[in-house]
Amino acid sequence: MEGQIERADKLFGGFSSEEVVREIAPGRNRLLYLWGHLTATHDAMLPLLGLGDRSHPEFDDAFVSNPDKSRAGIPSHEQVRQAWNVVNTDLWKGLKKCRGPTWLQRHSAVSEEDFAKMLRAIASPSY
Fold first, then answer.
1. Contact by Cβ (8 Å): 21, 35
2. Which end of the chain, N or C, is less surrounded by CB atoms within 10 Å?
3. What is the pTM (predicted TM-score) of this model?
4. What separation in angstroms does the CA of 110 have from each of 28, 46, 48, 51, 71?
């Protein structure tokens, strides 16, 4: 995952404020929207995986719940850059602490009942 984030850093970090507000293709999302969407999604992983609280839940309205260009006043290029750095630093620190058995624990998006069903299915495969 660290390598993917580094590649995204290089990609998005290489664009100017003017370039990130251009559509990636005519009629498509802007780079800023895609970068904000990734930032919001990574931020949402923190509580999901029990790694901490979100630092930018306000990004959901601008970059997840609504399509690009559907509302005015989205976070700026610099705000997205700063949030990206904070969120991914926190996420990476948390993921580095996770060891073997941690990856097999239930996360907050799965109910205890569904997790128990999954464990039973794994314990007695029908193949």
1. no
2. C
3. 0.80
4. 33, 15, 9, 16, 32
